[in-house]
Each structure stands twice: as C-alpha cells, then as structure tokens.
Amino acid sequence: MIESSAESCLPIELALGSEVLVLSRAFDIENPQFLKIASKSSINIIVGPSNSYEYSIQYGLYRDGNLLSSVSLEEQDNKPLGAIQSYLQTPELDWEDTPSAGSGQYELKISVSGSNLLLVTCNTRALNIQPSE
C-alpha cells in the first residue's frame, strides 16, 4: 500500500446529537498490513449568550462501516453573560489498524452535544493512511 490521504477545507455544519461523516478514504492492500491512520479536524463552536456552556465532541474512526475506535473531548466553563463567543478545537488523533487483504474504506465521523451552543462546524480536516515501518 502506498501512503494515502484525503483532506477538505469546505465547512460542514455538525447538527447537535447527530453523527456526521466528515471525511473518508479508500484503501487497497494485497496482504494484511499494519497501518497508521492520522486525522486532524478543526471544529468551530459558537456559544450563545448564557453565562455558561458545555460540549462534548465524539470522534469515531470506522472501517467499512464498523466502529474501530472513538475519542471524546469535553469542555465546560463560564463566560460573560450576554456575550456570544467562538471556540476552536483542533485535535490531531492517531490510530493503528491491521485490516485484512483487499479493499475497504476508513471514515471519520464526529458528533457534538452540549448546552448553549448556537452553531458547530467542522472546517479544515485531513485523514492520512500510511503503512507502519
């Protein structure tokens, strides 16, 4: 397998409580092989005028529709009453997998839940697959 990547800069709105596919990448390998999968996504969160907010972002890596692993990022804090503020989360996540020979597809899906959230978007994102050395 040759190193493979997918990326996008087009914003995707993340509906609260719904898992959204933000990027996918096909692969094809001749023999079972240990792969490193790296992802990066820029999540912009706009919170409303209440004096507090909380959110949870769930990142899921799927292979051929099956969840391989998930990671959660949680945040809560107080802020000035009446202020609408924007927060940016840009985690870089790494996974490892050993798929069987053949072709398949990796997918990165994100879901967001929380309170006092006005808008959540996934902006720049990347999904890279490379054989382990």
Which characteristics define this entry?
six-stranded antiparallel sheet; Jelly Rolls; four-stranded antiparallel sheet; mainly beta; 71% strand; 133 residues; single chain
Tell me what you see in this structure:
The structure is a single chain. This protein has a single domain, classed as Sandwich (Jelly Rolls). The protein is 0% helix and 71% strand. The strands form 2 sheets. Strands 1, 2, 4, 7, 8 and 10 form a 6-stranded antiparallel β-sheet that branches.
**What is the correct CATH architecture?**
Sandwich
Number of strands: 10
CATH topology: Jelly Rolls
How many strands, which pairing sense, and closed or not: the largest β-sheet? 6 strands, antiparallel
* N/C terminus separation: 12 Å
- Rg, rounded, reads 17 Å
